[in-house]
Amino acid sequence: MAEHAFAQTDNSGVNEESLRMVSATPIGNEPVSDEELRPHVLDGFIGQPRLKAQLQLFLDAARKREVPPDHILLAGPPGLGKTTLAMIVANELAVPIRVTSGPAIQHAGDLASILSSLDAGEVLFIDEIHRLPRAAEELLYIAMEDFRVDVMVGKGPGATSIPLTLPRFTVIGATTREGMLPSPLRARFGFTAHLDFYPKEELEKLIERSAAVLGINLAEGSAVQLAMRSRGTPRIANRLLRRVRDWAIVHNLSAVQPDDVCEALALYQIDTEGLDRLDIAVLNAIVCHFNGGPVGLNNLSAMVGEESETVETVCEPYLVREGFLIRTPKGRVATAKAWEHLGLKPQDDVSKLF
Ligand code: ADP
């Protein structure tokens, strides 16, 4: 990794999460291409064993009782399978699913019209539920608890509200920011599932499954190379796999060898730990220009030529999670792991800095 040290910090074009190959949120036409890779039954959903066991029990009980299950909240970072699980629940229950999202609902009336057209047993999936407008949220409380929606008829002082009884249905809410959900809304979910980042072995299985669906022949050891670079996130794993497929097509490969994966992804400047050009620029700046830190966010952002918000929200969470960076009251500090990753010997014991 020594070539990273003192590398020129060229950030042209890397200023948006949405432009990054290692972004956990969808880029390009991924919402469409993700569809072909979604498992349709719980058995096909890879990893998250505890969550799967809980959900299986929950669905089996609802099926035996012959009633729609309680409302379900799926919480966790983007790209870990929340939408996929919502689709699986509807499929396992053999009921239709209506899909919407917090930002798509601008007025309480938008939600009222969706709710009043739901069929008995239907699943209503609300992605980014923490972004619902307040008035819609309040309408949802009543609908979830009492299966009732108050429809406003007329305008101004003469307007009246007519209560409309709804058939029983199941709301599945997905959120990347569970803490932003007001507690009355959170309390209306009978089952809350937290999705965690996937360990490498699970990602490896997921990549092998996706490769089979896409008709890519991965030689032994190739899935491991992909899993190492996928930042614990299925969406990233599937994206990297598609880029490796491009490589295989262009090079007329009948089987993708581990070296092909390394070469293809090196072309996109993604290294063995899944760090990209921006991550490396940040580590490089702390280590080489600030002697390992501590360095304040503003200085660091100026050095890499990025908005401080981008560095803080796009880059740092993964660097902190993987132990490359520590946030201290005095600023950001590179860990021994960061120095070593850049091919350098740590100069300071970082614990002295606290
Ligand atoms: P989220 O809604 O949490 O952002 P998605 O459910 O859209 O994530 O998943 C992103 C992609 O990753 C989809 O293509 C999906 O098929 C795949 N995926 C996510 N989790 C799993 C899993 N556990 N097993 C198989 N594929 C998965």
Automatic annotation (TrEMBL):
Q: Which reaction does it catalyse?
A: ATP + H2O = ADP + phosphate + H(+)
Q: Which GO terms describe its biological process?
A: DNA recombination; DNA repair
Extract the HAMAP family matched here.
DNA_HJ_migration_RuvB (MF_00016)
Cell compartment(s), UniProt = Cytoplasm
Gene3D superfamilies per UniProt? 1.10.8.60, P-loop containing nucleotide triphosphate hydrolases, Winged helix-like DNA-binding domain superfamily/Winged helix DNA-binding domain
Q: What is the lineage of its organism?
A: Bacteria, Bacillati, Actinomycetota, Actinomycetes, Bifidobacteriales
Residue ranges that the Swiss-Prot or TrEMBL entry lists as coiled coil: none
Tell me if Cell wall biogenesis/degradation is a UniProt keyword of this record: no
Record's subunit section: Homohexamer. Forms an RuvA(8)-RuvB(12)-Holliday junction (HJ) complex. HJ DNA is sandwiched between 2 RuvA tetramers; dsDNA enters through RuvA and exits via RuvB. An RuvB hexamer assembles on each DNA strand where it exits the tetramer. Each RuvB hexamer is contacted by two RuvA subunits (via domain III) on 2 adjacent RuvB subunits; this complex drives branch migration. In the full resolvosome a probable DNA-RuvA(4)-RuvB(12)-RuvC(2) complex forms which resolves the HJ.
What sequence ranges are listed for the domain AAA+ ATPase?
A: 68-201
**CDD domains, alphabetized:** AAA (cd00009)
Name used for this protein in its record = Holliday junction branch migration complex subunit RuvB
GO MF terms here are: ATP binding; ATP hydrolysis activity; four-way junction DNA binding; four-way junction helicase activity
User: What organism is the protein native to?
Assistant: Bifidobacterium pullorum subsp. gallinarum
Q: Where is this region: Small ATPAse domain (RuvB-S)?
A: 199-269
